Amino acid sequence: MSVEVKRNKGLVIRSAIPIENKTWENWNGQIHIFPNAIFEPSTLEDLIDIVKLAKINNKTIRCAAQGHTTSSLSVTKNYLVVVTNLNKVTVQHNPKYGWTATAEAGTSLSDFDNVLRNYDPPLTIDSATVYNTFRVSGVIATGSHGAKSIMPDQLCSMKIVTSSGEVCEFSEEINESEFNAAKLNLGLLGIIYSLTFRVQPMYNLRLTDKFIPNNEWLNPKNIQNLLESSDAIGINYFPFNGFNQSDPNSLDPNRDQIWIKYWVRTDEPVSFTQQQLEQSRKSQRQGAIQQYELRRSLIQNSEATPNISAKLWNDLTSKGNTSFVYQAPDAIHYVVSEEGVKFNVMEVAFKVSPDFSNVITEYFFIMELLYDFARKGKFPINMPVEFRFIKSSEALLSITFNKDPEELYCFVNVMTVPGTPNWEEFTQLIAQRLFDKYKAKPHWAKDWEFIPNVRSYLSEVLSDQIKQFEKVRAKYDPDKMFFDSNSLQDIFSKSLDSQN
Questions:
Q1: How far apart are CA 487 and CA 273, in angstroms?
Q2: pLDDT tens profile 53-63
Q3: Integer Rg of the chain from CA
Q4: For 316-450, where are the E strands, in sequence order?
Q5: Cis peptide upstream of residue 35 (ω within 30 degrees of 0)
Q6: Does residue 346 carry a pLDDT above 60?
Q7: pLDDT over threshold 90, residue 419
Q8: Residue 353 binned pLDDT confidence (cut-offs 50, 70, 90)
């Protein structure tokens, strides 16, 4: 079997054979596309030959990994390259960094963790996404993050197959400014082949969950103190958690509690054996499915949202505050992945004020906005709103880009089951407020393209970063082989036109 190419070229590239199925959809089913061809490469030679084939046939290329990105970054009518078969991992001792680990583009974080955990000595990455099913190139290309940093900031180097068919290495040692463009590139420089991360000896983390009335704990000083004494923190607002249907004033936000999560390094032994942990994860998966089905029922019965949400909250908090010790990767990936549990998610990051007061302001704004909707018979979310605190990054296209390494950003993550009525209306109001007040920016990998005028807005607030990035992009992809994204084209063109 061979690939049909332009016959006058007389060339067949046997390692660039597309799969027979020409349909692809992302994880939550929001994106369903029919590209000209879909490739599933398993070697570096495959990547190089796919680029050669695209050049011969005058095709553009976009890439996908696990498909958890809910924006249109992987959408194409031409060639889609799905990198999940590129999954080898090697570990190296590095004279500068101590230990490094190189993962091919399609390696899942779970497989990456397992290689590091079973190495001698055991190793770990310092920060990662809460799910361990994501693939390394997806989290890097979109600037995904954990509870304290974006993953691109843990990179030492990376290799990308550019539009010339060459394998180019990017690192601080070679060219720092180009590396800052490459390590969060939205797939605009080529196909990522491999990524080399700084890793460190395995350590343990104590993960604590506390449930406290808002008015008892939620103030700027408490957040600041907890951040200073922890490895990382997150705060969550669980919708309608104080709902009491037997009370005449059942929708009273003053009864609501805050859910605080924080991680602290410790020399204490882990709280569970591996067998106990696996059994716990099995129970968590079953619970996640049951909760998801309850939340799905609210699509047709949204007025039951406060009651169902309060029931789920009571189940969550029935054992009171908890605090257990895990190996770092088990504490970092605290959400057990269940691919059948799908959701819409909009995430926006804004700069934290020096006194942390704006975090409190926006927490209460979102809670009060939710109750305003409820009083009008609208129930736009049925999953927790998450607030995470991430340090700034020098990655050019990062939404936390800042040359001051001490600047702190708050990520607000608003989720719900797909199909929930009024979700877009609710999240648009949140996003627009944060845009107007703080020049906040949406997470590239999440839902953001439905926000009114968002492309024009991003072209303006990212203008300087885009102009710097474009110099690197044009060098490695002058013919725009990888620039096949309508949203990115629109954002870039508006920024670049403004300099003429």
A1: 47
A2: 999 999 999 99
A3: 23
A4: 322-327, 344-351, 385-391, 408-416, 441-442
A5: no
A6: yes
A7: yes
A8: very high
CA angle 499, 399, 392 (to 5 degrees): 115
Contacts of 46 (CB under 8 A, 6+ apart): 15, 16, 39
Residue type, 272: F
* pLDDT number for residue 85: 96
Instruction: Look up residue 173 and give its two tokens.
Output: 């040692």
d(CA 366, CA 432): 12
Output phi, psi for 460, to 5 deg. Answer: -80, -50
Q: Which residue has the tokens 């692809």?
A: 24
In tens, the pLDDT along 29-47 reads 889 999 999 999 999 999 9
Cis peptide before 41 (omega within 30 of 0): no
Q: Residue 493 pLDDT > 90, yes or no? A: yes
What is the pLDDT, as a whole number, of residue 4? Answer: 40
Instruction: Name which of 154, 188, 180, 206 is nearest 76 in CA terms.
Output: 188
Strands 79-82 and 37-39, sheet pairing: parallel
Taking the C-alpha atoms of residue 31 and residue 27, their distance in angstroms, rounded to an integer, is: 8
Residue type (1 letter), 43: T
Instruction: Decide if pLDDT at 340 tops 90.
Output: no
Amino acid symbol at 136:
V
Q: Going edge to edge, which strands form the sheet with 61-64?
A: 37-39, 79-82, 61-64
Q: Would the CA dihedral through 112, 117, 120, 123 be positive or negative?
A: positive
